[in-house]
């Protein structure tokens, strides 16, 4: 399952074991670890203390690491606990489409790989008004650890996320064409086991 900068040759075969009868999983923020979206172009950051995801990881043996799990829904911030942005702005964000977790390498219970098909919408409010934006792309650095059920996405050295639209009162904090990177740390329930010989 996951997300690391995938320079090594991919593993040839993968096995996924999910104890949930319906192959579903949920993921919530690891306590005390914020999700951070960084606009690399402007330097602005949006920090979320509450974030979550749901998806499926289907039991089975896979010929490649592509699509070992699917994140069907992801949210960042809630109406009660919004994410914090620059100039006192408050934000919430949610996924627009399903995303794929792809394994690239496996060693000693840790899978590294990519998160692809990312498309999220963001809504921010400030004294200036409301800003709406969409970000698309991938996260290419991260890991999933069998022993802890922790999925960690590390901000990419080379950003692979792009702002594809930005409308409203965005105050040049986010604009179409900006590059972005993202980091977060999730606890997956139930704990899924991913292996590759």
Using the coordinates shown, work out and report the CATH topology.
Porin
Give the number of DSSP strands. 17
Subunit arrangement of the protein: single chain
Q: Helix/strand/pairing class, anyone?
A: mainly beta
Please bin the fraction of helical residues.
Answer: under 10%
Sheet having the most strands: 14 strands, antiparallel
Indicate the low-confidence ranges by residue numbers: 2-7
Shape: elongated
CATH class: Mainly Beta
Radius of gyration: 17 Å
CATH architectural type: Beta Barrel
Please count the helical segments.
0
The residue-averaged pLDDT reads 94
Amount of beta strand: over 45%
Distance between the termini: 15 Å
Query: What's the order of the H and E elements?
Result: EEEEEEEEEEEEEEEEE
């Amino acid at each position: 399952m996951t997300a690391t900068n995938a320079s090594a040759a991919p593993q040839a075969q993968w096995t996924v074991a999910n104890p949930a009868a319906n192959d579903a999983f949920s993921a919530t923020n690891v306590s005390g670890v914020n999700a951070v979206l960084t606009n690399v172009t402007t330097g602005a950051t949006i920090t979320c203390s509450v974030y979550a995801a749901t998806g499926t990881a289907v039991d089975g043996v896979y010929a490649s690491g592509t699509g070992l799990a699917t994140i069907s829904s992801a949210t960042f911030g809630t109406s009660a606990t919004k994410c914090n942005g620059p100039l006192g702005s408050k934000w919430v964000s949610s996924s627009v489409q399903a995303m794929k977790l792809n394994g690239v390498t496996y060693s000693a219970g840790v899978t590294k790989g990519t998160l692809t098909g990312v498309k999220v919408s963001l809504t921010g409010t400030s004294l200036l008004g409301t800003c709406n934006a969409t970000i698309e792309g991938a996260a290419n650095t991260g890991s999933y650890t069998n022993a802890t059920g922790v999925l960690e996405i590390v901000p990419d050295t080379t950003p692979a996320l792009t702002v594809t639209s930005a409308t409203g009162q965005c105050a040049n904090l986010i604009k179409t064409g900006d590059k972005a990177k993202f980091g977060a740390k999730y606890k997956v329930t139930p704990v899924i086991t991913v292996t590759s010989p």
